[in-house]
Amino acid sequence: MLRRSLIGALSAAGLAAALTASPAVHAQTAKTLRFVPHANLTVLDPTWTTAYVTRNHAYMIYDTLFAVNQKGEIKPQMVDKYTTSKDGKVWTFTLRDGLEFHDGKPVTSEDVIASLKRWTARDAMGGVLAKFIDNYEAVDAKTFKLNLKEPCGIVLDALGKPSSNVPFIMPARIAATSPMEQIKEHIGSGPFSFKADEFKPGERVVYLKNTKYKPRSEPIDGLSGGKVVHVDRVEWVIIRDTQTQFNAIKAGEVDWVEQPAFDQISSLKATPDVRIDDFAVAGLAFIMRFNHLHKPFDNPKIRQAAMVAMGQEAYLKTQVGVPGLYRYCPSIYPCGTLYSSEKTSYFTGMANPQKAQQMLKDAGYDGTPVTLMRPTDLASIAKIPLVAKQQLEAAGFKVDFQQMDWASLLARRAKQDAPAQGGWNLFLTAWTAGDLENPLGMAMLNARGKSGWFGWQDEPRIEELKDKFARAKTVAEKKKIAEDLQVLAMDTATHAPLGQYQSPSVVRKNISNLIPVNAGVPVLWGVKKN
Amino acid sequence: MLRFLIQRLLAVVPVLLVVSIVVFLILRLAPGDPAAVIAGNSATSQEIEQVRKQLGLDQPLVMQYGIWVGKVLQGDLGYSFYLNKPVSALIAQRIEPTLALAFGTIVLAVLIAVPLGTLAAWRLGGWLDRLLSGFSVLGFSVPVFVIGYVLIYLFSMQLSILPVQGYKRLFGSDAQGLWPWLRHLILPWATLGLIYIALIARVTRASVSEALTEDYIRTARAKGINEVAVLLRHALANAAVPIVTVIGIGVALLIGGVVVTETVYSIPGLGSLTVEAVLNRDFPMIQGVVLFFSVLYVLINLLVDVSYLFLDPRIRY
To answer: What is the reported pTM?
Structure first.
């Protein structure tokens, strides 16, 4: 009897213990912000990959020497002050006091120099800057110099580059990792620290507020200003299915979904406890890229005919479809950013199939099929090739429509073979404004022929103008050169801009103070959860 | 019996050899280049080539295969191209949710389907039998994700009694207890369970109804044994072999086929890991997971075969 009672009591106790939540690693009472990123975070090294989700992760835990505000101005971030010598060849930077990595070690000039060396080895704009640098010099623990071979106008543009690859600062021992390999430790000096023991790829990423972070005194403005954190913990909850994201935000299981599907926007607007918030004001843009190596687009006149056939409205309505979220923008730089211009030569962004037909005829188009690739598994851009096919055919092109998954498209895109031998003529994609706002960072303006970006345009005049841009000293000079670059890009038909759009977030109503950032980085400092 | 077990375990080797060759070749011959995916949207052809060299993908196929198999024989499934972590560690991280989902579904399905099918067979043509037929049609024809979204709408969004998504671990340093674990699996089990309840119930009904026509059932009834004992100890026991076979196949299918449910409920299991690896052409990950599944399937089939020994004393290996 006693034994039965004892067994019963022990079983009940055991069951009670099992049923109650066992102590979790994180404090349950901490203010936790649950954020659903637009993609699964797989790679943690922001120098090794250009993936936006990795960039966004890096902004959580690293800091940068300079940062861009909403007006496009480059502002000091980790830097306290900087000077330039009279001849423009020596740039001296002094770091702010109190900068510390998450392992408690101070941020020094050595760390900065190592980080910049690693970054310039992988980044296009960084590579341009590196060509101007004669040597890096660590004057003392807080002061370092860039000694240039000749004056350069893009030092701050490069050091304050907002989008991939961003010049994040890491400890020197980590930055010593070859740029072709991924770093194994993730220690920065940013407003959050990365909780490596709670990182579960495909499930969750956890960040804790860095209580030792010393924000600047200025208010937050874009990516610049004081990075004041108002939550204790951030959890990136990985939810791949957009319907599940929708359900989760409505049920209150998450606080912020970075990119809900466009067709959910109207339903979300009608949901009482959530609101739509657009932090990436400049948004993204679609583009169509030509393969300049092979017929028919080895002929610039035929490329121009294709450009004239393009009408932005159809792309935006088809892929985005929500009025107010897209805008017409024929500039190669996103409208509303520093270098955007209305000087677009013959290109209007409004479809003119009749004119395109005539141009095609005049250019001697012989009916060579245009191999147009479409990624079927990337919902964000899967519909735009369908529009391209329609508009090209309306202009008289013969289109060979090739549908495949994104990984296959990337592999085929890298082939310089003729389309009939496994190559291609056209593909379409989207970029955030941060990657398009500066000509030196824009992949489509890499016109170095077969060693350039996919499409392999060989146009020395573009490279000369980019070089001139890098040497320009004033904003007015850069604007003029950027405009000239745009006109040349249109005349040589580097690519076709197909419209600009926003991809707003959805947040619970108790989340406030989302920071507008043109580069499209979801900034989690400054955000409040009531 | 021991000899049988050893023979079956040794048979794993040629199976794994064939599987390894097939998956290795298929990955390399199919379109898609992991180096291009890794290098990113703004990379040039030269940068992609650099990445390919770094990953060892520029080596001859035979050498790549040899290096990989050599490591596997030492227990090293390689490193994920993307996650920069050992494949075995990633499988270990994701196995709990998938096994919880698969085995929970099967247990639920068996507990419901076997009694239902037995009762339906006992009263063939009756209301329960007809209900079961209709239910089976529903289970086989409605897609899993539709069932999932409907259940979420009802129980999570409208009634707010069960969560929409996610998984709470039962084991490990971030385990949160039995109830949170159960709570997050109720809807996924119900979602996946429907089709397996339909399948197992139908097979049970067919097997038991056939057993009920046998002479030994008539003898048992003539001897005055009560109907419950007739059904359970005589009919069901003799019908168990095909039922267990289907359950075994169901488990194997479940482990590989839970990806839709994992996606709908955002459960971080092996299914979603595999899909992501395929989309990213993460060769080591895909190869590792396929090998793992192969071993699992062989072991499940072995367990099913061994269970026959206990279900049917006439079977001897």
So the answer is: 0.89
